[in-house]
Amino acid sequence: MTKVDLSGAAQFFDAAGPDFAAAAEAHRLLAQRSGPGGDFTGWLDLPQKMLSGGIKPILSAAQKIKKLGQVLLVVGIGGSYLGARAAIELLHGANHNRAEGETEVWFMGNTLSPDAINELIAVLGERDFCVNVISKSGGTLEPALGFRVAKALLERKYGRTAAKKHMFVTTDESHGILRSIADAEGYESFVIPADVGGRFSVLTPVGLLPMAVAGIDIKAVLEAANAELHELDLRSPDNPAWQYAAARQHLYRRGKSIEILASYEPSFRFFAEWWKQLYGESEGKNGIGIYPASVEYNADLHSMGQYIQDGPRTLFETVVMFDSCLTGYSVPFEMGDADGLNYLAGRDFGDIARTTAQAVRSAHIAGGVPNITVSVPRRDEAGYGALVAFFEMSCAISAYMSGVNPFDQPGVEAYKKNMFAMLKGEN
Amino acid sequence: MTKVDLSGAAQFFDAAGPDFAAAAEAHRLLAQRSGPGGDFTGWLDLPQKMLSGGIKPILSAAQKIKKLGQVLLVVGIGGSYLGARAAIELLHGANHNRAEGETEVWFMGNTLSPDAINELIAVLGERDFCVNVISKSGGTLEPALGFRVAKALLERKYGRTAAKKHMFVTTDESHGILRSIADAEGYESFVIPADVGGRFSVLTPVGLLPMAVAGIDIKAVLEAANAELHELDLRSPDNPAWQYAAARQHLYRRGKSIEILASYEPSFRFFAEWWKQLYGESEGKNGIGIYPASVEYNADLHSMGQYIQDGPRTLFETVVMFDSCLTGYSVPFEMGDADGLNYLAGRDFGDIARTTAQAVRSAHIAGGVPNITVSVPRRDEAGYGALVAFFEMSCAISAYMSGVNPFDQPGVEAYKKNMFAMLKGEN
């Protein structure tokens, strides 16, 4: 379903072009689960597994949560946070929590700012709420402290016993502090499969439970992701995942060290954040890796546009397009035409936006910025599921092509080691 | 008031260190208004000018707007958008529009997505509202179309005559389509000084009117900015603006081509967007310029943290710190200490956040990422005003040091030319 258009990048390729033989080898390593980190490739058949039996308990918990309160607080960070937020904002808009009658979904445990914590508590007010704490180990400081805060809020409101039925835990099946706590307290819990790492976990209960509470059709998301993964199993340069992976690695070797992910939909902001983690954490290691950045068009045409058009020629741009908008809006007619824009009156904003996108694309290419366009039909569950599967698949192939393990993150430990030592007064 | 700490960058300097002589020369060019773009240095004494007479009509319009409705729609893009949003989110949080009794401030005219337009109209609902349209010329397509939409909404609700008193225009004193329209229709209007460019205009009515409507003390913002500009007139390497400008130019010459602006406050997100425009648009030209990126800590320690710690050593990090938080929140005590975190019970999250920041700083420096720390006392009006003045001043000096005109943006025209031609069917 996802389509990749490399025509805006081709003029920046050298004669040999993207290395599809290397993409094929990377794909083989991935599919055989024989490359570095092969134990963390469970996401490859995850949608299929979730569809055959895994959804029911999630939908049933989502129903319970909606009945129990108007608010769900989701405690998580990194891969336990960005995927669900990306989905909810992309599909229901950044203002999803203003929709009448829907259960609000708020995220915590990803900041230590007391001001931010107090702000969220003020938003919660006196309303009934549930908590979904998400952590594979339970040992990560930010969500562990967020869990303490959320648990204390629940117990203050409902009492220690009644609070238990407001707490939902998503964690490892058998290991870690959070699993022990969930079992000891008798919280309803969900499993993060051992063979799926954080940034590839959005289609596990990690992402699916908050999405379901927000009213997203998670079956449709999974079906699209499943179909996409099947399409992307194609072993040929026609495979869109090969195209994206091979093109970006080729551009990187030719000095394009920053990739800007762009969209014309403001609701895409947190999808870009999810993508940054996926690519930055998978590829940025051993002193190499494309820097993953993002912009929101049209807004950022008037902020980052100058740099993109005229700054160092070390950028390429990947634009995610939706073939059609979900709604329409016509440019109003103005008696007198004081602003001279009546030639656009009656035209749909969606058409104008698409024309703008073409204008931007050709201006950027002419300015020396290779353009890769990734498109799906609509900004709906199917589009989201396809994009998730597409970017995950491409990412693993791209990382293998660059010679790194896509599934580890050794660098994340450095600050944690310092931090725990300092907090315990050890240095 | 703004302090710069270069101790985390010093080990990455060469023996000669940052070029303060060049900073002095850049400062001289700027102060004498004799460098390229010298006609656009009006922001240098803007706070002083606004304080002596410019505030009253803004405060009075803000009062009118608050009486007329519960919502203000601000129509603007780029420099007519990011500064006010940065201020309102930084000082009142990303959820400012949920605060009881405050007038909500929403931004439009920065997207052509019909879905986003319809989403905003749904948020507005049947409530009373005003519009503040901001554009120096009136000729920029996105806000010009946003103005049409907003005007049509107003006229549909109030009728053509009564709608006029709900419309507030911020534009050039005498030139441009929007000025003509404002005068012809009799809209209340505010002036964007001719000698202040878009990205330096936040302390004109462009930013101040929306801020005032949102309940921000604009006098305090201006006083802090004014005091900061006076402090930054110091002609010595002790000048924090010289330090920041010279350090980043030095790091750039030593291969650090990406600057990541980081904060530990989630409410800082749009301040970083404002900063990206300021630096990206001022410096990114003629094929040179540091790429301005941003992250939100702690969240992004678990997404971009791996890349920062372990990816290509082409980054440096500028962290904006607030010396103290506005509120406190203590880690709850847990009977049984199942998670093993009772050693932190009773500690304030603000203290833990500061410890984390130290741990991150030393881990990143050890990993090869130079750290510049910029700090102000508090996340309040004074802190915001000081940061705005500091970053504007440093930016102009830094751009002059790199040999470019900080005040033009020739590259922004490229896509516009294409776009208007395509929309008019000329190609």
Write up what this structure looks like.
Two copies of one chain form a homodimer. Chain A has helices spanning 20-31, 46-68, 82-92, 114-124, 141-158, 160-163, 177-185, 205-213, 218-231, 240-253, 269-283, 305-310, 349-366, 381-401, 413-423, and strands spanning 3-5, 71-75, 104-108, 129-134, 167-172, 188-192, 258-263, 291-296, 315-324, 371-378. Chain A is α/β, with parallel strands linked by helices and 427 residues long. A five-stranded mixed β-sheet of chain A has the order 1-10-9-7-8, with helices on both faces. Chain A has a five-stranded parallel β-sheet with strand order 3-2-4-5-6, sandwiched between helices. In chain A, α10 (240-253) packs across α14. The termini of chain A are far apart. The relative contact order of chain A is 0.16. The mean pLDDT of chain A is 97.
* Distance, first to last CA of chain A: 53 Å
Report the portion of residues of chain A in β strands: 5-15%
- Oligomeric form of this entry? homodimer
Mean pLDDT of chain A: 97
> What is the gyration radius of chain A calculated from CA atoms?
23 Å
